[in-house]
């Protein structure tokens, strides 16, 4: 067995993307392979904590974590991957990084600063923006828009918040009951919700402070936040050896073991996969753990037939509504209020995630 471990040490594993999935996978395998993590930023961020950080910037001290804090035994390349061949990855800086096994975990295309300090400063600036505004426009009624509206409504009850959503109901990714309960909750917090309307993108500027919707309605707001979906971070893959492995939505097609279909040594995890389930951070973490198990098996010469299978989860979702409440949809019931709030809203699973990454759940050392 020892010989196998030494053999595994020589296996070169490259992980592209240091989001919630890629970071957990790199951490899990750092002592089982020669791991290189390629990410354009120097940190990993707990995604479901970002909206709380906008109304309480100090919250980000625990939810924005330098890669080096949890990934102590591997190489970090702070760059973007721009090409993949059968044997190596090319970065934007022109570095060629050879691999025996590859994991693509580039999630959604989000543009955030390179360093943790800059990201924390960004949260402070967003807090100032909210704090100094009397009226705020939120564009988009998915989980991000609804959670942000909830955070602002609870922490700043004197602000006039308007949420504009082009769908016929909020949170279209889950059931109508959860949508209805969330709408009722937001209205009870004096959030004005406009459904089936778009905001004219030409009018999206904090300078003019005047916005027009597709229904011709004109209203004022001191600032706005765009909370609409972002595309998968896969456009660059169209020129690589994986170009034929993308579906029509730009997602990588994977098999039940989370390998890219038709590939023996390339895995994909997180939001970039075509798995039929809601794209949520806690599911991306589950992908990471299944892929890590399978990589460990393959690296030590285990049988492919013994590989773990990832089973997509039934729709279960918890959307935070401020600090106390949440709406939760489970397979058989939908509930709103303080009970689901106790599951998620207090700490937003930040302590739990830090612990999983081998870090102190509470204390921050700067």
From TrEMBL:
One Gene Ontology MF term: electron-transferring-flavoprotein dehydrogenase activity
Keyword Ion transport: no
Signal sequence, start to end: none
Keywords: FAD, Flavoprotein, Oxidoreductase
Oxidoreductase found in the keyword field: yes
Gene3D superfamilies: 3.50.50.100
Record-annotated FAD/NAD(P)-binding domain positions: 12-288
A GO cellular component annotation in the UniProt record: cytoplasm
Family annotation (SUPFAM superfamilies): FAD/NAD(P)-binding domain
InterPro entries from the UniProt entry: FAD/NAD-bd_sf (IPR036188), FAD/NAD-binding_dom (IPR023753)
Function: Putative FAD-dependent oxidoreductase.
Similarity-based family: Belongs to the FAD-dependent oxidoreductase family.
PANTHER family according to UniProt: APOPTOSIS-INDUCING FACTOR 1 (PTHR43735), FERROPTOSIS SUPPRESSOR PROTEIN 1 (PTHR43735:SF3)
Protein name: FAD/NAD(P)-binding domain-containing protein
Lineage: Eukaryota, Viridiplantae, Streptophyta, Embryophyta, Tracheophyta
